[in-house]
């Protein structure tokens, strides 16, 4: 298929440009009988919404989502679910200065070579605004997974040079950074304020965890659960790296250290991050992703225009100085979509499997 | 589709267990007119083959591949290509001791819960032996890409705690580690010898680079080139992390540092690793992958059996003390397959695009 | 993937119920640079629109389509195209009488068993209203194909017992039946008027023809052009049969009669309907489809309710006495979508193929 | 994906040319725990095998199938199943006379234009020999369906001008024509003998029936059960038409006649052929397919060569005077594969659905 669809059985197909009339998605393959309302989707959309703190873009979008099909009398019918978000804050600004220029580290140059043209208004299709539909679709997956006792939650584990240890899920919900340690928040705010004064941006690291998974999700050999999760997470704007469990730390580990031993009481460790041979083990599924610093900064940068001539580019407008700050709900959505797809795929082939062996956690 | 197929237009579907009669693959979507012989595939298969040095498993497999269709009079016809490798070294050993046990860090436990049964001989389908067909299929992609001026090459950038700087591609071909620095080889050999004495294993980091790419490969928004590459690389046995370009280092970088500025003479840096907005920029495509230490070690480990009772597991047999040593050709294959698929996908939609803008390198 | 997507490279995914707030589609994979406006889509939508003559349902829907993405400055950008049609004529009628009953020959019974529930208002997702989005998406394919010199046109070849010979394409556009012979129109009108008096419905046969095709479209062995066309046409509501070329007449033909001989001046006949070995020959692609009579008639019929108890069903409301009358634009759309998909697929793999042999027509 | 794969969850990918070293297939997505042996596949392969009567090609192929993976200790493991059939009767004949000619009604001309080259030995990939792997894969689906109480059986309903009424399934197994009426067999034999004397060929009509289906199989709106079945059946070599239930007869039927009324005792008729709204109703699934006459006849025919010059073609070699005679097992296989795929797809999404309403037959 073309590139705007994610998943094989629980599929999400999206459309929409940053400054077009609307964003939309079609969620196909949702089981019937799931209670679902627009409010269920709005919750996560509000967590991703811009302009909620001084540390993110000041673009004002209510991001009100409408469910146009697939839900009848408050529950899903099993048919495709149409979602729509109208863009309201499309400033009619003058783009003549950038329409023929390639902003460094943006998709301008690669889109231009791929398509021969592009919607240059706010990045068009390459804008992170597209991720709003991922969050809306992911909320449907989360709703279904929750009913199965599966939770998907994320947090910021590093902001620029500042590493953050996990303290509690409660803390995550109480600050604009999705920071799991309330005592570190002032430090993060101070860092961000200085960053704005420096007219610069910085990267971030996000961690996502799914708990309550049954063992057995994932398809050997190419559609492993971790492989498809890596696909989903790496497809998020600005992501440059993905780790499962110990990730790159495993490079310098010994086998006797890395292997997660098992006892009747459960696993003794979780270096693997909940995946064995590409299939869920039933332990918490743990992934980390690296987001690069925002490319749009007001510090001038060297580039070329469509004619190949040198230009100096200064990116004005309303931008997140750290795209990672709003990435947590998006990462949760991609993990939820991946799990939902694999839950259905596993069920399709293995519905009749019965196992005596107890499930370890 | 099910999980044993990779790619959307240039597809590879594989079968085969570690100790079954044969491994096989079907490569579909190869353009017609490509000169192709079994020798072209054998070259890479020999680079991956076990038993070529004392640092890898002593299993003796010639890994002779046969082309059963899709090639006529020395060139591809455009129809599906059937590949077959007969297993020759399947020792008829007694598996009764492990058939009901779950080896720690192996797929035994997750496969058992997924399918309710498994081929326990040498890991069955979960064995890395499966990767032989990836290498064979990848060699077809490499052959086509090479004719387009695109090269795909890899090397070992870290062995356990030992980091290795890139020196030359020539060096890579001259040692059993795919080490790019000939002066470090003795150090690696000493480390491996000690590792064997310790009856332990270790992880490794592999780097893969594609050069000569046209800009424009990759499909927004979910099928980004880097996302599909991450999918392919993470699907390799034992891989726990994938980075594109600077990867996790980008977390602590500033935007003014990370962004790759452009001049008429070319890009001034390549922190992005050759991908902008998920689409190739024409710069070298750079990826790094982390491989965990081999799970099969002779040091006893705690586990349970199918009844949930505690057992002590000692993995005997012939195993690589570092699976990363033979992973380079496999990583190259997955990158080649990803690029081949996207080259065709890009061509399908954008064949008529003509761009005046010069291509930067 | 799930069932609401058609095509592999040029994909159409749809949503929407008969009496929901809106219908929508996402068209993915359209080449960039194609001039496209809402008016280009509206043309075919108007040909399918209900209430344009006394011989079709009196439901009044303007079927105004909006393009929400993928088109910038009047041409396609290569990104996904979002389409939306708001439902305006959703009568708030009382469905309590049919909500628990299964109308004979409708999808009520099969949907109920599949999903355990259904949107019973006007048939919900199973209503032919869904085909409006096929026509809108098909119009995009037609626009692209037309630029390549490929036309896709259809006509009614039989209405109930009345067979109609093809006379001219001009005639097709000048009557409500898509009848290619102007002299037969009065006969058709008289038949339809009597049908309404009989409170009954009838079937129809539609023929579709594509001209100007290049030879080579279609993928052996499962994705033959005729196989995918049969898939697309059979997926239209009420279709019970599909023929390519001579179709079922070929059963009693001799090989010496059926085979289309070739001369340097061209083919001497077209019994094959433009397909050889599942691949286009360059001759006109010809398909015929059989549509069953409308299931919704006011003559009472026997059925059961959700409890399994016997009921007598009388289908009220506004229905086409012959669904075939409005099926021509839908059949054209499915043929156009199939050709568009295969044009891109062929181009992906065979872009480099050059053939000296002249193309016959 | 490319064209050599059928199905979405239960997938079959095939390779192999008529005169290549071997034919093969990979069946992916088969549930684990299914008892399966090579003998189970051989049964249907033998029904399709050439040279079993004087009315089919005299090519002698044992068509011995080997299972190379996915089956362990006599049952399926859930991993991909590799199948292989070695070609044994590849006569080393001289093809120089036809290598540059296009046989009328064959795929020679369309393959040449598509790929720029072709394996001309016995038709290469376009040969019906490819269908052997469909039958082998279909036998796996049949085995699983049978365990669910679902049978898939076919018979010849017309040979050239001779229509045959269904009498009994027992009769079908007792003659070389799959004729359901033993009293008509002598007539068929006489017709075939005369046909050979005339050095000509003829078409046939095959009917396939599945019984014991649960209601609910099929995915709206594009992947309807009947649409995917039409895809599968039309993809069989020489098929020119497909009907579901009454098919083209429905064109002249009235709604009051066609609709299948329901009573608590069951359906009163089956004009629909077991499908309502594209979803199985639980009634017998009935399809009919039209096969064109064999293109290879010894009567000379006009054609051109690769240079566009006129030639007279005489097709020598060993050919079926009626390809329809051996098509019954192939049609059964495609219906079984379609049902298997949809059984898994339905299960994936609707595993939790519980319905009180009784199932009618």
Short summary:
The structure is a homotetramer of 361-residue chains. Chain A is α+β, with helices and mostly antiparallel strands and 361 residues long. In chain A, 25% of the residues lie in helices and 21% in strands.
Structure overview:
The structure is a homotetramer of 361-residue chains. The first copy, chain A, has 361 residues and is α+β, with helices and mostly antiparallel strands. Chain A has one domain: Chorismate synthase, AroC fold (4-Layer Sandwich), CATH 3.60.150. Chain A has helices at residues 38-48, 108-115, 131-147, 169-172, 185-197, 225-234, 255-258, 328-350, and strands at 5-6, 11-15, 22-28, 65-67, 71-72, 75-76, 81-86, 151-159, 162-163, 204-211, 239-244, 262-263, 266-267, 275-276, 279-280, 285-291, 301-304, 310-313. In chain A, a hairpin with a 2-residue loop joins strand 14 and strand 15 (279-280). The radius of gyration of chain A is 21 Å and the shape is globular. In chain A, 66% of the residues are buried. Strand 11 (239-244) of chain C pairs antiparallel with strand 11 of chain D.
**Strand runs of chain A, count:** 18
Largest interface, Cβ cutoff 8 Å: A-B, 124 and 124 residues
The main β sheet of chain A shows up as: 5 strands, antiparallel
Strand order of the largest sheet of chain A: 1-2-3-7-4
The averaged pLDDT of chain A comes out at 95
Q: List the uncertain runs of chain A.
A: none
The radius of gyration over CA of chain A amounts to 21 Å
Number of domains of chain A: 1
Distance between the termini of chain A: 37 Å
β-strand amount of chain A: 15-25%
Structural class of chain A: alpha+beta
Indicate the percent of residues in helices of chain A: 10-25%
> Quick one: CATH superfamily of chain A?
Chorismate synthase AroC
What is the multimeric organization of the chains shown? Answer: homotetramer
* Order of SSEs of chain A: EEEHEEEEHHEEHHEHEHEEEEEEEH
User: Treating each run of at least 4 consecutive H or I residues as one helix, how many helices of chain A?
Assistant: 8
CATH class of chain A: Alpha Beta
